[in-house]
Description:
mainly alpha; globular; 7 helices
Amino acid sequence: xxxxxxxxxRTPEPLIDLRxxxxxxxxxxxxxxxxxxxxxxVLQLLPLxxxxxxxxxxxxxxxxxxxxxxxxxxxxxxxxxGGPLAGILAGRFGPVVTLAGAVGLGTIGTLGMFAGVxxxxxALVFALLLGFTVGALGTSGFxxxxxxxxxxxxxxxxxxxxxxxxxxxVMLNFVGSAVLHSTALPAGGGTxxxxxxxxxYLTIAAAAFGLSTVTAVVLxxxxxxxx
Length: 227
């Protein structure tokens, strides 16, 4: 991204000039990359804790408490509801407000997973909420970016949103994987993720969502002041 920023200033008529995107659009892209990374990392954690029994004494574990298939299906149901509903709400309250609301729900969902990694009912509720966040963020991200860009640049800005989604989807997964690997405990001739690793993983995701929330509030206030 740093290299892209530098190249934008050196290339004559670049396809996407990052230096000319403007503050509100840059804030939107920052929200997308952080929030996407947060919810993707938490959703990737679900199957890792879903098969571990709580009786193993690691401080987490959902194995034997409920259907893992149901747990993994909950986010998809949330996506189906969140996307269309975010579009309806954007038409009434504006896409920026809807984006901020989606980020706030994601923050709640991530914080809720501190309890969800040891309780199947809580995990089911907050996984559904995170899926709702996925759908709402996807819809709101494109709506906000489209509203901030002139008609001639909306196609390229939409592509840039997809780049941010892709970057965010892998960024915190790599960080979380490194945390789990570095805090793993020996067990049965192999290793198992420790409670310290799992809760540190969630703390990083929650911190990223918290930063997204602050950025969304700044964006909302900035847009209101412009109006």
